[in-house]
Design brief:
- With 144 residues, the chain is mainly beta.
- It has a single domain, classed as Beta Complex (Metal Binding Protein, Guanine Nucleotide Exchange Factor, Chain A), CATH 2.170.150.70.
- The chain has 2 helices and 11 strands, in the order E-E-E-H-E-E-E-E-E-E-E-E-H.
- The strands form 2 sheets. The protein has an 8-stranded mixed sheet.
- The radius of gyration is 15 Å and the shape is globular.
Length: 144
């Protein structure tokens, strides 16, 4: 299913040709600091993403394998993107579901970095929950 979205001020907008029906939640420290809480995001393949207002997009290389982007007018977080060539998910966008014009119908299927989640809240439901070690192993990141 295709979906459109935008930042708070509308300077950056996008169309995603194929949006999976499932989204994930990341509780890692970087996502919490970037999003102000957990990141509720859906993965969009690079070929399926069209961005308008690119002149307002700013990025920071937030880790050895990924960048984060925001709108330079309103500050809205736009995406987390894998930049490590040859790595799993290279080029894909992890888009916060709150940016979609209509996020209805998306369902939660996974929480990651569950062992870094603050203890003040719990997300209900029966879905996969992975620890930091499990996530790093899944994406082939060496922790040694």
């Amino acid at each position: 299913m295709s979906r459109a979205g935008r930042c708070l001020c509308g300077a950056v907008s996008f169309e995603a040709a194929q949006v999976p029906e499932h989204f994930g939640v990341c509780h890692c420290e970087m996502c919490r600091r970037w999003a102000g809480s957990a990141l509720f995001g859906v993965t969009i393949e690079a070929a399926d993403m069209t961005v308008h207002g690119q002149e307002h997009v700013r990025t920071i290389q937030s880790s050895a394998w990924a960048e984060r982007a925001w709108c330079d007018r309103c500050g809205s977080g736009l995406w987390y993107r894998i930049t490590q060539e040859g790595g799993p998910g290279f080029g894909n966008y992890e888009v916060p579901i709150g940016l979609f014009d209509d996020p209805a119908g998306l369902t939660l299927n996974r929480e990651i970095f569950i062992d870094e989640k603050p203890d003040g809240y719990t997300i209900a439901g029966n879905h996969e929950r992975l620890t930091r070690v499990e996530v790093m192993k899944l994406y082939g990141v060496d922790l040694d």
